[in-house]
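Why do we bother with holo predictions? Because pocket geometry can differ from the apo form. Keep that in mind while you read this record for zinc ion.
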Amino acid sequence: MARTITLKYDGTCRDCGAELLAGTLARYYGRGRIYGTECHEDTRPDPALNADHVIAAARESTFGLGSEGICRACGESQDGVEPDASGCECEACGAHAVCGAEELLFEL
Ligand SMILES: [Zn+2]
Ligand SMILES: [Zn+2]
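The structure, written out:
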């Protein structure tokens, strides 16, 4: 998870490449992975894969009648997806990024 830190050294925003000077705030995602807080719009959506959502969907498809897939790109649920499917077209965003719940479980 990201932490917000005050930079001790100059760095570069991994997102937009802006120079981040020592003493400014940055989000820190681990060694060498820093992102500025003000140098660019935060366009990054929350991670599309929500663990609880994936687990709930997988449980449905294993024990219930559900066949819910989840789009990796936008996080939307989609019905009628085989549990082990991957790369199906998303009805919400059009990306070929919908995977079956069981497939997604491996990525948590
Ligand atoms: Zn930036
Ligand atoms: Zn989508």
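Helices lie at 51-63, 101-105.
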